[in-house]
């Protein structure tokens, strides 16, 4: 049996990247990384991304539109409204069958100064 490597991706422009993750700081970088790596084990998303026009919700929409489903998606945004919107959209998609049942979805806000 072939050993397949899966990747962990951390989208954030402020928090330090946890060990074992690839850091991406923009929506464009995140989408490019997801497309290039194909097999994503854990995708951890922030909502607010500094001065960039797009936010983490755009990544959620991209995942759904292109049927790309990591094993686990965590919304770690400290933005209560934006983070909840991302989480709610993913949960709604999972309930409707758009997201496979094996995908774990969490909403665990992290403070800006968070470091593992």
From TrEMBL:
Full protein name: Cyclic-phosphate processing Receiver domain-containing protein
Species classification: Bacteria, Bacillati, Bacillota, Bacilli, Bacillales
Organism domain of life: Bacteria
InterPro entries: cREC_REC
Organism: Sinobaca qinghaiensis
Domain Cyclic-phosphate processing Receiver: 7-90
Listed Pfam families: cREC_REC
């Amino acid at each position: 049996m072939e050993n397949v490597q899966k990747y962990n991706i951390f989208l954030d422009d402020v928090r330090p990247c946890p060990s074992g993750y690839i850091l991406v700081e923009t929506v464009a970088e995140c989408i490019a990384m997801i497309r290039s790596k194909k097999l994503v084990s854990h995708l951890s998303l922030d909502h607010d991304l500094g001065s960039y026009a797009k936010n983490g919700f755009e990544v959620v929409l991209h995942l759904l539109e292109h049927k790309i489903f990591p094993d686990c998606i965590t919304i770690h945004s400290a933005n209560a409204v934006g983070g909840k919107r991302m989480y709610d959209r993913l949960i709604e998609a999972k309930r409707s069958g758009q997201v496979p049942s094996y995908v774990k979805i969490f909403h665990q806000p992290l403070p800006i100064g968070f470091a593992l």
